Amino acid sequence: MDVLRKFIPYFKFVKPVRIQFALGIVFGVLFSLTSGFGIPLMIETAFPILFGNPDQAPDWLIRLVDQYFKDDIDGGFLILCSMMIPFMMAIRAMAGWANGFFMNYTGFYLIQKMQKQIFSKIQVLPYSFFKENKTGEITASILAYPEQIKRVIVDMSNDIVKQPLTLFAALGFIIYKSTTSDSFFVAFIGFLSIPILVFPIRMIGNYLSKRSMQIVQLGEALTSWVIETVQSPIEIRSFNLEGRQKKHFFETLDRIFKFTVKSVRTSLLITPSIEFVSSIGFGLALYLGVQNGMSQGEFLALFIALYMAYGPIKRLGQMHGLIKQIEPPLDRVDRILNLEESVKSPEDPIKITKPIKGFIEFKDVSFEYEPDIPVLKSVNISVGRADPLAIVGDSGSGKSSLVNLLMRLYDPYAGVIEIDGIDLRKYCLRDLRDQISYVPQMPLLFNCSAFENIRIGRSEASDDEVFNATKRANAYDFIKNLPNGFDTIIGEKGNLLSGGQKQRIAIARALLKDAPIMIFDEATSALDESKSQDIIKNITEDRDKTILFISHDTEVIKNFTRTIHI
Description:
Elements: H1 2-7, H2 18-45, H3 47-50, H4 59-68, H5 73-124, H6 127-132, H7 135-159, H8 162-180, H9 182-189, H10 198-231, H11 233-238, H12 242-267, H13 270-291, H14 296-337, E1 360-370, E2 373-383, E3 389-392, H15 399-406, E4 414-419, E5 422-423, H16 429-434, E6 436-439, H17 450-455, H18 463-472, H19 476-480, H20 499-513, E7 517-521, H21 529-540, E8 546-551, E9 562-565
Helix pairs in contact: 2-5, 2-8, 2-14, 5-7, 7-10, 7-14, 8-9, 8-14, 9-13, 10-12, 10-14, 13-14, 18-20
């Protein structure tokens, strides 16, 4: 039940398709009634009249037959009964189809919405989330796990109404007959062994949950390994790591195969367990029924009703196993959806309706990624327009951490950062980042044209503005010489370009954004000194911007009038 409760929040997405959901339930009820109650009732009531045993038929049916068919039992009444069987089966079939269609429609819609919610949530999670979680786990949570959960929710949506009602309808008929026939009641006692099935089903479910967690963890690790391998072809070949990569990949696959086979082997025990225990109960019912004078018609009705009850019991057992298998992926998705946004806009933010002046102050700022391991300690820095600031320091000294704090990818644990005299944490997060152009050392370019990659900086920019930005970034000439010029698709992460070309496109993108604050974090590290100095000159000549240029190379920032060492 605890696992089932975890699915409840996802049913809030059913509201837009509540009509389809309601129709699915209605048809499920109709299917259940025709399966578990209709056919056994017909066998119990009408068949005795057809086979010459009217004394075993209920009085109300005998009166109806006498009134409308009189002596025409082998004619009109037989034809009616013969037609009723395919009629009820047709209703059952149509109800089953409609139930399946509408419940699947609801289930697929629900999961699509869930995938959208997960993806949207990840867009607002703090930067630390991506540092602390593997790429494989994040990717699987967006794409793979919703697909697995969909299988459960669709099946449950399709069966959670239909199967219990079929079972209850069949049991309702048996209980009804047990109150009118002592032999029927005694025979039914033989089926009280069915609750024994709870124990093996529960044990199997717990085992499947354990194995599923192992498979999930290995699958996430494998996905991360594949992503690293695909993204690191140069490193792998330069260090001759092909054999190492293959060995780890094969070993992980083998472990997943082993656990999957064990999981399947165990899950397949559910149906045989139910069938075996049910057969014991059926044999006992046969013995007790005959010993207590049960008629053939009564036993046939009992057999059909129990047959109708057997399917739901087996299916519910399979559902239990499936739910336990999906519990680990569900926990992963729940964790993301319920994860707190540690860096977010205040409830009543200060909105930025016009470009800021861009005066930045770090006041006694201290920061650490891990407890008791400070990265920045009591930092005091101020910078404003027309006063470009170069920040220089060794690798790992905390230069990039200053940028992360300024963009509110993290918040300091002590001190305050102000822009125009206002604490960053009081601004709307989106408005704040709109005021900053940022170029990292390893910029990410998208798998689209060079022109589109630059225009991401400001989607409404004109073509001429894009071209001017590339000229300032010393990128115009090399882009024009690409096979299709500015329309050249530059590949995933810009892998068709050199490191210096990637940096220049990223710089052009930042210049096009034209934000009041511009941050360049080792932005020219892949360029030769002359190109680097040309770009720095073009950047710093803009006196209306607040510019921070970060580098570990003192030669690169030699022409800056203000330099801070960290």
